[in-house]
Amino acid sequence: MNSRGCILIVDDEDDLRNLMARVLELEDFTVYTASTPAQAFNILENKPVEVVVSDVRLEVANGLDLIPEYKQKKPFAEIIMLTAYGNIPDGVNSIKRGAFDYLTKGDDNIRIVPVVEKALEKARISTQLFKLEADTPVTGFDAVIGESPALKSAIKLATRVAGSDLSVLLTGETGTGKEVFANAIHHASKRNKKPFMALNCSALGKELLESELFGHVKGSFTGATGDKTGFFEAAAGGTLFLDEIGEMSLDLQAKLLRVLETSMYYMVGSTKEKKADVRIIAATNRDLLTEAEAGNFRLDLYYRLSTFVVELPPLNKRGDDVIILAEYFVKQAAGRMGMAVPKFSKALINALKQHAWKGNLRELKNVMERALILCDSGELDVELLPQDFNGGHGGAALVRPNATVDLASLEKDHIANMLAFTGGNKTRTADILGIGIATLYRKIQEYGI
After folding, report:
1. Which residue, of 82, 92, 94, 228, has the greatest Cβ tally within 10 A?
2. What is the 3-state secondary structure (H, E, C) of 274-315?
3. Which residues contact 170 (CB under 8 A, 6 or more apart)?
4. How confident is the model at residue 126 (pLDDT cuts 50, 70, 90)?
5. What is the C-alpha separation between 88 and 198, in angstroms, rounded?
6. Is 84 helix (H, G, I), strand (E, B) or coil?
7. Whose CA is closest to 447, among 421, 416, 403?
8. Rounded to whole angstroms, how far apart are CA atoms 424 and 379?
9. Least confident span in 196-210, 279-293, 296-310
């Protein structure tokens, strides 16, 4: 069975130390024990400890004085201090010195597991945010944010196939981060020194999509005033990511199948074959086998693409990842807006964990950016969430109340709110949203904003 996390218990009372270790081991934690600070420091230097449970009154040292030393050895580990019965000042001083929480010896046995779980969650969030804020650009699977078993399982599969040249099909609901995953596979592959190109098959009509994929020669159609390089050529030696592959027309599917089988293609309007040297990663939120059986997708192309399938879990199956991601989106948006990064209230954290997240990461990003805009204090609270959030437990009337999430409406409202926030400054709005100015203008026209 996989370990839920690594815990270090530091206590010079053998019976109590062994009892706590047994309790945590029964809950599938990996537990290390130490009776002296020297033993504890040695373990911290050599083991992946995430939470330290330490007695305040050790025979050879004051546990409160050890808190900064524990942190020095493991900066992102969280510390839980054990105090004697009725010794409230020790507990308060522990927190003042940087401990996550404190437990009363012999009186808090039922609390130890939930407190350790919360400390573990905070330690992992801190570790993730540190990675994301590091000066070195985060690439590969380090850029895939989250710690949940469902996500780790998908990463494990993708890591196995990354080193090969096999085509990969990413499946899952809309907004689960398929392009980030595709990029991670590319960066973990032998093609990582060459381009990663992404093309959304649903965003373009048949003729334009064909031209974007294969390129065209001058005079091949009205408006073709010169030769155009296609994605297959631009991504030479690298990876071509085809998002929403299920939206591609059947005749264009046939041409894509030929490329996969022969590595050859024609530019639009040309009779000269060109060689394609790309790895294909495709993505869809549809059941392509069902679509193929209904005549909407080529069965032969499905089998060619689905050599290796990786299913991305929806956000509502990823547990505490929602908080890690929410923190990340808020930090990103605050940086773009020049705002201080607010804390999360406990009520907000509970609401985020309980929400269905039908729009997945995209919905979470929009909700958190909207909350940040409305925040006029140092804390994000549940009142800043949309009114229909968690069945009506939010407070900010920014989205039309609906029983289900309409992603288009969510995006439209979010863009409108950002434009209002920037006083109609489209350049700044595009920058805050993290999209190009041309994309913003297209969205404004598309949604009639």
Report:
1. 82
2. EECCCEEEEEECCCHHHHHHCCCCCHHHHHHHCCCEEECCCH
3. 178, 181, 182, 281, 282, 283, 284, 309, 310, 311, 312
4. confident
5. 58
6. coil
7. 416
8. 27
9. 196-210
Give the DSSP letter string of 168-217.
EEEE-STTS-HHHHHHHHHHTSTTTTS-EEEEETTSS-HHHHHHHHH-B-
- DSSP assignment, residue 100? S
Alpha carbon distance 55, 276 (integer Å): 64
Q: Which of 209, 216, 275, 268 is nearest to 243 (CA)?
A: 209
Report the C-alpha gap between 282 and 157 in whole angstroms. Answer: 15
CATH architecture of 140-311: 3-Layer(aba) Sandwich (3.40)
Q: Please tell me the distance from the alpha carbon of residue 78 to that of residue 138, in angstroms, as a whole number.
A: 24
Considering the chain, tell me which residue range(s) the CATH 3.40.50.2300 domain(s) occupy.
6-132
pLDDT at residue 83 tops 80? yes
The 10s digit of each residue's pLDDT in 422-447 is 878 887 788 778 777 777 877 888 88
Summarised one tens digit per residue, pLDDT across range 35-79 is 999 999 999 989 999 999 999 888 888 888 899 889 888 888 999
Q: What is the pLDDT of residue 268?
A: 93
Of 90, 95, 93, the closest CA to residue 78 belongs to 95
DSSP 29: -
- Phi then psi for residue 152, to 5 deg, are -60, -35
**Domain 6-132 annotated CATH 2.60.40.10:** no
299 Ramachandran zone, left/alpha/beta (phi>0; psi -120 to 50): alpha
433 contact partners, CB below 8 Å, separation of at least 6: 414, 415, 418, 440
User: For 308-406, where are the alpha helices, taking DSSP H only?
Assistant: 321-337, 346-354, 360-374
| Partners of 6 in beta bridges | 30
Q: Scanning the structure block, which residue is given the tokens 């530091």?
A: 10
Give the model's pLDDT for residue 446.
Answer: 83
Nearest to 29 by CA among 46, 52, 54: 52
pLDDT value at position 399?
37
Where does the chain hold its CATH 1.10.8.60 domain(s)?
315-447
Strand partners, 41: none
The more confidently predicted of residues 286 and 397 is 286
| pLDDT at residue 404, as a whole number | 47
Three-state secondary structure call for residue 31: strand
Output the CATH code of domain 315-447.
1.10.8.60
pLDDT surpasses 90 at 419: no
Tokens of 396: 């900010």
